[in-house]
Amino acid sequence: MIQNGDDDWLDALAGRIDASQRLSETVDQSGDAPPSRSLVFEALALREFIHRQESGAAAVSSVDQARESELIARGRREGLLVSQKPAAGSRSFLRRPRWRMTIPAAAVILIAAGIGFWQSLLKQPEYVRGIDHGTTHIQARDPTAFRRQLTEELRTAGATVTGYERFGHLGMDVDLPKPLPKEIDEILERHRIPVPSDGVLVIEVEAPAAR
Amino acid sequence: MRACREGGAAIEQALRELDRAFYAILYRDGIRSLRDPDATHDLVQETFIKVWRRCASYRGDSELLRWIKVILRHGAIERLRQTAREVPMEDREGLTEDASRKVYELSVELNPTPEALACRAEYEVQFRSGWKRFHEEDPLHAGVMTWIVEDGLSNDDIAQLLDRTPGATREFISQCRKRARRYLANWYALAVEQGGPK
User: What is the model's pTM?
Assistant: First the structure.
């Protein structure tokens, strides 16, 4: 079966069409070449020349200590490595006196905040549960509908959104344009989703009964 | 991926391992699109940071390198789009069957003779010049064509990368073909004029 010309061109460029196969397949009784045949010739030639051009692309060392250090520094600047700090030192942070004082106070504040938050949830269709390893977890009464709505809102505002599903959780990868458009900022603000510093937003949505 | 979930000190080691395992591969992929060593270095490091941030969303049902490459290419496309200009272009004149066959006959595989190889050098010069200009003036289309050649991207792969509908993706692919003809016009013309090496 012969597809349309651009499909054939793409297949030939991608190496999915074997030259001899295609050349013999497309010769018909009348001797007239199908329109896609010339496109296949063209794509096969392009493929070979592009491959030759690009195979000479600059090679770099696979191990480079300076480069690794630069990456580590960048990761630190972007907040990836902050969790290292509590592990430093031989004493558990729970044994430090100031923590002994702080934790009960924090607990009281959290309980008070929790009650207020719980009351506000009764009115909200969704809320952000927290951020774990760079993923913003959102609880919504109807996760599918919420993800669809948020995807449409963000795409309309210019973000690149890719949906996925993992372990029953609906997720979305969002690439935010830089600088962040006001429309997107407003959408995130409306849903109480924190703006990531690096322009990459990973969101997972789950129903209240999931946990 | 394990380190991603453990966090803490494991992250630093994970970043080092990511760099050692994938930097060279990703750099080669990135430089083909961006054509700028500094921008490519920045893109690859940005990709590693994104990989760490997104590791919770790695489903494990696709090859890790492939998954990382998609993240890199999304980043590359975003950068290319910042400078890309959408210029509507008509398909001026289609190549005739004879002309396209002559272009195809440039292939070394079909013509391994010394005469053909010598003649081919001239085609190489014309191609390199046109391809360079294509990359400079229309890096998104040229870059995607390179990815198609190197990784055999399908229509669906391209649609996902560009975040376009299947119909819009077909139009994009059609534009790649038409733009290649424009930028590589001298290469095509030489093949047609000289009839390709016999």
Answer: 0.57
Nearest to A71 among B19, B21, B107 (CB): B19
The tens digit of pLDDT for each residue in A30-42 reads: 444 555 777 888 8
Contact A87 B100 (CB under 8 A): no
Yes or no, beta carbons of A72 and B16 under 8 Å apart = yes
- Could you tell me how many residues make up chain B? 198
Contacts of A87 (CB under 8 A, 6+ apart): B8, B9
DSSP chain A: ----HHHHHHHHHTT-S-HHHHHHHT--TT-PPPHHHHHHHHHHHHHHHHHHHHTTPPP--S--HHHHHHHHHHHHHTTSSGGGGGG-SSS-GGGSHHHHHHHHHHHHHHHHHHHHHHHHHTT-SEEEEEEETTEEEEEESSHHHHHHHHHHHHHHTT-EEEEEEETTEEEEEEEPPSSPPHHHHHHHHHTTPPPPTTSEEEEEEE-GGG-
Span A165-187, pLDDT tens digits: 776 778 888 888 878 888 888 88
CB contact under 8 A, A68 and B27: no
**For residue A125, what are the CA distances in angstroms to A58, A128, A132?**
52, 11, 21
Question: Would you call B23 helix, strand, or coil by DSSP?
Answer: helix
Q: Rounded to whole angstroms, how far apart are CA atoms B54 and A134?
A: 7
How close B89 comes to chain A (CA, Å)? 16
From B50, B88, B83, select the one nearest B69 (Cα to Cα): B50
Q: How far apart are CA A71 and CA B26, in angstroms?
A: 14
